[in-house]
Amino acid sequence: MPRVHVLRHGHVHNPDGVLYGRLPEFRLSDTGERMAQAVADHLVAASEPVGRVVSSPLLRAQQTAAPVAAAYGLEIATDDRLIEADNAFAGGPTPTPLALAHPRHWWLLRNPWRPSWGEPYREQAARMRAAIVDAAAANPDSATVLVSHQLPIWVARIDAEGRSFLHDPRSRQCALASLTSFDVDLAPDAPRVTFAGYSTPAAHIGVPR
């Protein structure tokens, strides 16, 4: 079965602590660039046969994809389905539990199952599953690297594992510049995505405080 690695982007330059969501201008920090290079080095050292690199359209994802693409002599394709989840809080400060307790946020927080503050989990799962299956079908004879964002990657994993979408964000196993891998059964009538592993090739690079 084709293997698809979904790579979370590296550390972002964000000195003001903005919840950047889908905002287009946020780039990798110097640390994030080192993380992206560490992932490329890891894949090459592991003799991973990467034949295609596809990225979210957001700048931080494109920059994370660049060292992997360069290491394998590939162009970066772009797939809008890999974009960050939409979030009503984007553009403001990252909300703290105390801030979320304010009555003005109660309507947005009314349904954590959906969730009511942003793109529904089921919609994220559907677009990520389709992107993963299409990536495997486009490159069935070698591995593909997709570059995306924490929540869509985590939702894709729990969807593949058949678990509940409702979760504590602190429990997500999806570190910066981590690889969440899937095997794809391309059966014509019912393609199936299976979680195949998780690794953190940039874990040795400390995140600045």
Automatic annotation (TrEMBL):
Gene3D superfamilies: Phosphoglycerate mutase-like (3.40.50.1240). Signal peptide: none annotated. SMART domains: PGAM (SM00855). It comes from the Bacteria. Transmembrane segments: none annotated. InterPro entries: His_Pase_superF_clade-1, His_PPase_superfam, PGM_Phosphatase. Coiled coil: none annotated. This is Uncharacterized protein Rv0525. It comes from Demequina sediminis.
